[in-house]
Amino acid sequence: MSLRPYIVGNWKMNGLRSTMADARAIDRAAARYPAVDVGLAPPFTLVHAMAEAAQDSAVGGQDCHAKPNGAFTGDVSAPMLLDAGAGFVIVGHSERRAIHAEDDAAVRAKAEAALVAGLSVIVCVGETEAERDAGKAEAIVAGQLHGSVPQGEGAADRLSVAYEPVWAIGTGRVPSVDDVGAMHRSIRADLVKLYGAAGKGVRILYGGSVNAGNASELLAADEVGGALVGGASLTAENFAPIIHAAAMLVEG
Ligand code: PEP
After folding, report:
1. What is the mean pLDDT of residues 140-163?
2. DSSP code for 35
């Protein structure tokens, strides 16, 4: 792993004030592994509380609106996330793409809004099972990448990409390490096409059923710079070993 590892938890629509103890325990785990960047993306309602409590981890949103403010009932903007203490935001998660019908252009607009606001951004891409079975996985992911990542001067500097095969999310199924490496190499090549040398510094996270048992081998795959973790990020008991696995790869 040549770049500093980045391990990010996505709590999705989980978490109440009563579960802040888990967030604090994850933050303490992050403190034990200074070679690893750790982030936690709770629901909007916990962003501020977590940001106040976190000392050794970053706090992020799971989505943001492309506009800074306005008549968009129920939405939250990137400047609002920043104001609440967030340092990053995830955009284009497959659940947003599928359930909220977000297309690549919408994801790009959100990513660019995040950067303008001063946040870092994680752009998610990934193929469905039918697309993989049809031999189209790399083409689909390349299309999403070219359509979704932010454009403009310095856009690569605060960007990470999460490769999350849709069929691996929350299912307990993971691609082979070889397939993960092949996809990450393909994403890296596209990032260099898009951003030139700056594309080499973008961390590419793997996401989809990462857990304490499989983290070491997935994180060791080619061009994997970290992990985006759903279910296993909800407790320190499950998440800390993933942070530990990343630390072991860089510290030996
Ligand atoms: C996710 O939704 O980003 C994710 C990777 O979920 P899980 O780890 O639960 O598969």
Report:
1. 97
2. T
